[in-house]
Amino acid sequence: MVERGKQIYSIHCTFCHGADARGGSGGPNLIRTAVVLNDKDGELLGPVLKEGREGMPKFDLPASQVSDIAAFLHSFRVGGYDISRMAPPTILVGDAQAGEVYFQKTCTSCHSVANDLKGIGGRITDAKRLQQTWLMPGATGGRGGPAAPPSPGTIVKVAVTQGGKKITGRLVKIDDFVVALTEDDGTPRSFTRDGDAPKVELIDPLQGHRALLGKYTDKDIHDVTAFLASVK
Ligand code: HEC
Ligand code: HEC
After folding, report:
1. 18 — phi, psi (to 5°)?
2. How far is the CA of 127 from the centre of ligand 1 (A)?
3. Ligand 2 atom at shortest distance from the alpha carbon of 102
4. Is the CB of 209 under 6 A from ligand 2?
5. Mean pLDDT by 10 residues, the chain (232 residues)
């Protein structure tokens, strides 16, 4: 039916409504008209063709041909030809280049694709997961959130204030008696704890991500995901 309908359509209708029924010279897009959307097998289409419309001639076609045309028009939905009716097959719809520009501006204070995010697109091949991972790292693997204890490998920053001096670094160990950290230049430091002294602050590593979350536009999100996916 679809094949036959396509032939009949191409003879009578293509000129005005376009080969893909999305509009041609003078005729509207048919796929989203109420007539086509509500029609099942030509029962609504038939009267329109019989009566014609302003700018559209009457068509005296046998019912079987009307059904065939209807089947052809509905095949765009079933076959998903009309992209707006389909869930996108991939969320990689962004512009990787624009994503790279955004990344350079927004993310390089903490990350580098040559270093900690090297090969991330190859490591996380599922685009949805990749997007989830960079949008809110703690949410996927239970990494980093302030409520959950930090898992191994998670960067937790710590600041220890002793003698009026604040020393910050990557947390190595903390218990009631000792806090150990590695300064940014690699120097290991360790302090004995006695109650509240020295003052120890754990810094939420994902604070940066939390702060950014409300700032991304849909386009930024798509673009950055496309860019990260290309980092193989
Ligand atoms: C000469 C140009 C022309 C041809 C040929 C033509 N149409 Fe149309 N068609 C139009 C125009 C113009 C309209 C919009 C009329 C309006 O706005 O009322 C239209 C409207 C329609 C509508 C929508 C009616 C509605 O009320 O929403 C359908 C369905 C339709 N055409 C189907 C067809 C089919 C199927 C064929 C081929 C058998 C065809 N048309 C051939 C010009 C054409
Ligand atoms: C203020 C610092 C900061 C900024 C800005 C920042 N991030 Fe992060 N990001 C982190 C921290 C900290 C982690 C957690 C690292 C860990 O758990 O090992 C992280 C984790 C990630 C991860 C998960 C890494 C992995 O290996 O699973 C991705 C991907 C990521 N960020 C991407 C981005 C992107 C893209 C941007 C910019 C839109 C960005 N980040 C901005 C600090 C930041």
Report:
1. 85, 150
2. 41
3. 38
4. yes
5. 90 88 85 85 95 91 94 71 48 90 93 93 90 74 38 64 89 86 91 89 76 84 94 93
